[in-house]
Amino acid sequence: MCIHSTQDLRKGHAKIQQPPIFASMEEPLMREKLEALRKLSFTRSRQLKKEALRIAIIRGFLFLGAVYWLYWLFPSPALFVYGFFILLLFLWMMKLQADKKKKLAFEIAFQQVISRDLEEQKIQDTFKMPEELEHHPLATDLDVFGHFSLHSAIHRTYSSASALQLGKSLIDYPQDPAVILQLQKEFLNLREKGEEVYRFFTLSLLASFSEKEEKGLRDWLESAHFKVNNWVIRGFTLLFFLVATGVGLERIPPQFLLYTFILNLMVVYSRIKKISALQLNLSKVHPSLEQVAAQMSQWQESLSGEEEKSVWEEPRLALRSLSRIMARLDSRLNPLGAFISNGIFLYDFSTMYQLEKWRSKYAVKLPAWLDELAKREVLVSKAAYFMRQGGVFPELSEAAFELKFTDLIHPLMKKEKAVVNSFSMTDKARGIVLTGSNMSGKSTFLRTLGSSLILAHNGLPLHCTSFRFTPLQLHSAIRVNDSLEEDASYFYAELKRLASITEHAGKQPRVFILLDEILRGTNSADKQAGSRALLLQLIIHKKANTILATHDLSLTELASEYPDQIANYAFESRIIDNKLSFDYTLKKGVCSQLNAMFLMKTMGIMD
């Protein structure tokens, strides 16, 4: 028999090679680092506010100086010289102040992101998952999505794309040992770049698209092109300057310059509605795209290999270019500037030409770039989870099946409240019948196993002393719901789930199945016979590693019939001084205490 109790594991514990253990968020080291980063950011914020105030004061003096020179020099030609340089200086100051405000906004967001983790806040999981993920059996059984879930514990970025990518990785997790080990390596690498990780999150906060904005961007990429010929733009612009030159040389009457100006405006304004509608749509995503480009730039700088960096060079430069074109499009909101620039340069047409040129070159690539960035966001979110939680990296086993851990607790439970358990299971003894009274911890133990395996496959650390596993395909039937929409009763819904599990057990290698109190929707005799038949089918015939939690003590007799393949484990409860007590500790053997009658009497249901 290759299933060991807590005591057996601890005796052989020295033989297990320990993975590294790291400081968790609850320990002073990590908290002190984040506090230091936040204080440094507060200092930078104060300095930026002072600098912005100084620039505002200088701009005020420049304005007063301009009024002074206008009064004393008008209409002297020197006024235009001084006025030109004051205008340039004023515009430069405006740009400086805008840069300071942008940096200040970043620092405020940076402090918000750090405070979120120091105060252990969670991002509200408001992202709607696709139905195939949200209603996946693992999602329902193992609290993958929702307010108190694996997804909400890990998710630290703000885009719907990264939320979706994270959801996919928790349900359809990697099983290739090389991929899992590479993830562990990347998390270790990112752990050493704490400030960069939180700067990346800040950019994610500033770059977050709403679903409506993201849809608007994708609609633009797929919409009909705005057809404008560059030669038309050049021709009308050249015409204006030729006429202006002729007027300056007194070869052409001055009114012809006005006619050319009006002609250019008529050309642009003939399509102004379409340009304005597009500008209104894209202006909503322009600030986010600017931050996405900054995200890509920071990710690129964090990479060590030149080959890895070069992969991000094209998307970074392309998105920066798109952001500048969109900024030009937004500048048309200045009515006077748009009026003059369109009358001379056909400014709107020129901007639209650049935008369409960009779209023709990169439209096909942009969705893939954003999806790839979402994957990076997920990677950084998982690394930050490691930074906050600490823990032990699971070891990978090359055995056909092995699951072995000591002192494990549920990933979502507080350490100070949780009871640790140790357990070992191999391919030689592939069946466990787990008994226990009500509320003794059977279901929690199954969810602890399932949740921990999902994290382990994602390369994430666990709260335990050691954890060793074979990459596997996990199936479960813990919480089964009926469906009014499909007119399916609870019993029928459960049979469908069990049929699916049985089918996969026959086709997939390395299957691990978690079952909790199956066939509850039928009578005792049917339930007992059906549970026995299913266990034998899964464990004996299909060779699937299975744990069944049950109240039916008759199923424990299978361990006597198949001693080399099935074992009994139990959670016990005790009644002490007329009070029900649980130790939530897994033990070998069969449950010996029942508590349903006691609970009913305690709650006044019966005398």
For the biggest β-sheet, the strand order reads: 8-9-10-6-11-14
User: So, the CATH homologous superfamily of the largest domain?
Assistant: P-loop containing nucleotide triphosphate hydrolases
Major sheet size, sense and barrel closure = 6 strands, mixed
Shape: elongated
Properties at a glance:
607 residues; alpha/beta; Rossmann fold; 3 domains; six-stranded mixed beta sheet; 24 helices; elongated
Describe the structure.
With 607 residues, the protein is α/β, with parallel strands linked by helices. It folds into 3 domains: 230 residues, Rossmann fold, CATH 3.40.50; 94 residues; 166 residues, no CATH class. It contains 24 helices and 14 strands. Strand 12 and strand 13 form a beta hairpin.
